Every structure is written in C-alpha cells, then in structure tokens.
Amino acid sequence: MNAPLLRSRMTVRLADLGAADELARLDAWVMAHELGLPFHRPDWLLAIEESTGQKAHCLIAERAGDIAAILPFHLVHSPLFGRALVSSAFAVGGGILSVSDAATRRLAGQICELSERWSCPTVELRGGAMPGRGWIEKRDSHANFLKPLQTDSEAELLAIPRKQRAEVRKGLENGLTIVTGREERDLEWHHGVYAQSVRNLGTPVYPKSLMAKVLQRFGDNADILTVLHEGQPVASVFSLYHKGVVMPYWGGGIWDARRLRANDVMYFALMDHARGRGCDTFDFGRSKTDSGAYHFKKNWGFEPEPMAYAIHTADGQEPRDINPNSPKYRAQIALWQKLPLPIANFLGPWIAKGLG
C-alpha cells in the first residue's frame, strides 16, 4: 500500500548546469511549458554567468522522475547593492515555472532556505507562479505590453493609433536605413547607441559581453536591428525570439534619434522583420507603471498587463533597492547624465553587472 506513495513523493534538488543532458532536459521542459520564457532557459542562465560572473543555479522539483517545477536564479553579489537570489538576473521575467501549487510551494520554501544558508538577505522572483504566504507581492509597479502582429506592413501601420502612426510616417520619410544581423559590427553599433541612451537617462550601461553572450547562446533566436542615418547608427534594438513571439529587449537611440523619429521607425521595422521570421506576437516588454516608456507603448496601441513580482527578505531586513526611480538615487542619476561618455562607459559595466 505504501509503495505507490513513496514513488510519487516530490523531491527538490539543484540542477547540474555543467551536464549537457541536464541542460537539454531543462530546456525541453521550458519550451514545452505554456508559460516558459527565454529567461527560464539554461542559455539565459549561463549567458549571464559567463558575462557578469553572477553564479547561475536552478532548483528542480520532481515527482516520479518527471519535472514538476523549476526555479532558475542567480546569486547576485555587488559591493554597492549587496547579495540577492534573483530569478532571473538581468531579466524582466522568470520566477517559478510549475505545474502544481504544491511544487510551487516546495521551491519557494527551498530558495528561502538557500538564501539563509548563502547569506543572501533578499530573494526576488520576477513573475512566474506566486509563492503565497510569507512573501511580499507587488502587482502594480510594472506592466507588460503584448499584442498580435498584423498580416502585413500596411495593416500594421493602420493598427497604430493615429498620432503615433503620424510619427512613424514622418520617420519613414527621413531616409533612414535598416540593417539587421548578428555580426560583430551589429553588436558594436548596438552597444554604442545603447550606451549613449542609458547614459542620457542617468543609468550605467551593461557590459557589451552580456549582449555578446546572449547573442552567442541564443543563436538564431536573437538578433540586432539598427537604424542608420547617413551611414551612422542612431537607434538600435536587441531582440529575442521565443515560440512565435518577438521581444525587443535592449533598445535605445542617441539624442538625434528623437528628431529623426528613429525609434518609431525601429519598432515598426522590427514588426515587419519579426513577421518575416514567422512571429505572430509582439512583446513590447516591461515598463514601470506611469513612466515615459509606459505611455510610449500605450501610444502604440498596446494595453498594459500588470506584472506580479514576489520578494522575500530575512527577518528585519529591507529589500535591496535597485530602482533607478528611487528618490535616493536622484542626485547620482543627475550626476551620471553629465558624465562624458567614455567615463560612463568605463565605470558603467562594473556597476551594472551587480544590479542583476
């Protein structure tokens, strides 16, 4: 009578991310799960570790030899921002991917135990199945923007609300050139534009090696689209492709991009490019509620979908604060915006790789 119960007992363990068969099994499970994201995939975990030094891990809950849930995460350490277990680092999504509430609770409990054992006062789950009691849940700080792609370019243009459509049309008249690729040139263009963009916003730039490793590990499931004006890059976006969805992930433009409407042309061109790749959905990604990016995406006709985040802290500890909109960083952001670009690009990656 007890044998079937023993065989169905749930077990939890850390995955062996150095074993090729383990990685293949995890990746196949993520790809088969309806809610699986690029940020759950082993390629994301390992690209982050290889480019930033933040150690990758993955908890697995199994029952009778079958995966019931996974929790990919990084142990993020920063001299400035402290230590945290983050699912997944440098991602807008992640968290627990599960087939049952019981498996979700087991992994939530296990990562809390690991946080104590590894002296990490904060655990951050970015989306996924919510772990429930004992966790701080945030459901109104961020929203995601997702909608279907249209059947062709003209239909896509007409689907954009009138005012934003006018901006796209103006941009298309500016003689801009679109180049898409995965070569070193594309990476150089992208990181150069992105570095200027985030410096102008007052935040440190991620290391170029981060983009390079994601590009390498994701292969044809990642590429870079760059907008050129008179042969010079003015806007660029790094995108991921996942189960028919295009996800523009790291993007930005130089100061002149606004005058040229280069960002508007960039996203419209990406919609065309993604449709040509067989995608049927455009995921405009996460933005802070009521931010400039939030309203920009609404102007394109996307409706915000609230995102759920969960945080657990050790007794008496405050969650780490890496939000660039936090009042405590206002002076630092104002100073960073004034830094010469070479200095910002030299210091930025060292700071940014500890943000996770």
TrEMBL record:
Transmembrane segments: none annotated. Gene3D superfamilies: 3.40.630.30. Residues 165-298 form the BioF2-like acetyltransferase domain. InterPro entries: Acyl_CoA_acyltransferase (IPR016181), BioF2-like_GNAT_dom (IPR038740), PEP-CTERM_FemAB-rel (IPR017469), PG_Glycine_Bridge_Synth (IPR050644). This is FemAB family PEP-CTERM system-associated protein. It comes from the Bacteria.
